[in-house]
Write a structure and sequence with these properties.
globular; mainly alpha
C-alpha cells in the first residue's frame, strides 16, 4: 500500500501462512515442505525474479486463492 516510506518494497517479505505456502507449492514457486524461514527465502527468491522492485505484491493473490479454495 506504500504506507512505509522508510522501507523499500523490494526489502519486504510476505507472510508465509498455510494459504500462501500451499498455493506457492501448487504453482511450483516453492519446493520446500516445511513452512519455515528457508521456505520463505526460497519463495521470496522466486517472487523477486518476477518483480525485484515489489515482490510482495503477489501476497494478496496467493493468500486470496488459498482462502477461496478452502471455501469450496
Amino acid at each position: 500500500f506504500g504506507i512505509w516510506k522508510s522501507i523499500s518494497t523490494s526489502e519486504l517479505f510476505l507472510p508465509l501462512d498455510v494459504h500462501t505456502s500451499r498455493i506457492s507449492r501448487e504453482l511450483g514457486l516453492l519446493q520446500r515442505k516445511q513452512d519455515d524461514w528457508k521456505a520463505l527465502e526460497e519463495l521470496m527468491k522466486k517472487l523477486r525474479e518476477m518483480d525485484a522492485n515489489d515482490p510482495v505484491k503477489y501476497d494478496f493473490a496467493l493468500f486470496g486463492i488459498g482462502v477461496f479454495e478452502n471455501d469450496k
